[in-house]
Amino acid sequence: QCGKCKAATRRLNLNKYCKRDFAIMGRVLSRVEDPVDEHTKGWVRFMVSVEGVFKKARDSRIRRGPTSLLVPASDLACKCPKLKANKSYLILGREKDDSPGGIPTGNIAVTQRSIVIEWRDEWDQRMRRFRRRARKCK
């Protein structure tokens, strides 16, 4: 039922960077047990401290500091992605998804199309390089 977890890919290149709306480095603080409401039904909320913003859309609400990150409950059941408290991750994804069952408005979310990689300090330089090169993104 689960299949291969695409979010846990180990490789990141400029093409993948360009195709995502945002790129952040965030530390998972906790999993939040929300009362179920219509907007977040089927999603699990994590509190994340955004420690670095490498890319975001012009109209984005992503800022440094605490924010919530949504993960589909069905993906989490398959441990995709595997998120652990007090670990930092490089997270690339889409902010908007207007399709039915898409990302609830005003949230950042990890879906099958996202990339989630455990953070390593040497990636700081690499992300800066991507940011410079991203001006050529189509």
Automatic annotation (TrEMBL):
SMART domains: C345C. Its main location: secreted. Pfam families: NTR. Keywords: Disulfide bond, Secreted. SUPFAM superfamilies: TIMP-like. It is found in: Secreted. This is NTR domain-containing protein. InterPro entries: Netrin_domain (IPR001134), Netrin_module_non-TIMP (IPR018933), TIMP-like_OB-fold (IPR008993). Residues 2-137 form the NTR domain. GO terms for cellular component: extracellular region. PROSITE patterns: NTR. CDD domains: NTR_netrin-1_like.
